[in-house]
Specification:
3-stranded parallel beta sheet; Rossmann fold; Arc Repressor Mutant, subunit A
């Protein structure tokens, strides 16, 4: 539905040409490699290779790739990760067509575009909340309800190591316990259940 709406909004513009579309992250990377569009509009919730990974791969192909994120993900960590990976604009799918066009134009001109609500969401991000890849794995398993013993088995690490990671995750998120960490993880976009 979002792609149909996007196509409808953009097809009315004489100075905009849609060169390709897909709902698959790996295919988005391949299409970018082949077509080199001026601006790429990317969702984050893609099957297989997600939007975060696709943005990273596209930016590795072309450091000056101009990418606009248009997504349902609105957590502070989602915004941070997308921008860190190379997106230049970040919009949620409830954005008006006019604002989407403004973002595409700004991005095409080489400028960042972050609506006020997105800037506010990004400002909520706790500066010390940078989790290591292993801590992100542990946090995801916490949100799935796994015990330390289960996490250790799934990650093939010692239970003592899991306790260290859990402690670090709680500290970085400012959470008092595992339940609060799981809630924060979902609210801020560390994990998604699509």
């Amino acid at each position: 539905m979002a792609r149909v709406a996007l196509r409808s909004i953009l097809s009315d513009k004489t100075d905009v040409t849609i060169v390709a579309e897909t709902d698959n992250g790996q295919e988005a990377i391949q299409l970018y490699r082949k077509l080199r569009p001026d601006v790429t509009v990317m969702d984050l919730g893609l099957p297989g290779t997600d939007g975060f990974e696709a943005i990273t791969a596209i930016r590795q192909l072309n450091r000056s790739a101009r990418i606009v994120v248009l997504t349902n993900y609105d957590g502070s960590e989602d915004v941070y990760r997308a921008l860190r990976n190379g997106a230049m604009a970040y919009l949620t799918k409830d954005t008006s067509g006019q604002e989407l066009l403004q973002a595409i134009i700004a991005t095409h001109q080489g400028n960042r575009y972050l609506p006020r609500a997105v800037r506010d969401r990004l400002a909520e991000r706790i500066p010390c909340s940078e989790l290591t890849p292993r801590e992100e794995q542990v946090l995801k398993l916490i949100t799935e309800g796994c015990s330390n013993h289960e996490i250790a088995a799934k990650l093939s690490i010692a239970e003592k190591t899991v306790r260290i990671h859990v402690s670090s995750v709680l500290e970085k998120l400012g959470a008092r316990d595992r339940t609060q960490a799981a809630i924060y993880a979902i609210q801020r976009g560390f994990v998604h259940f699509d």
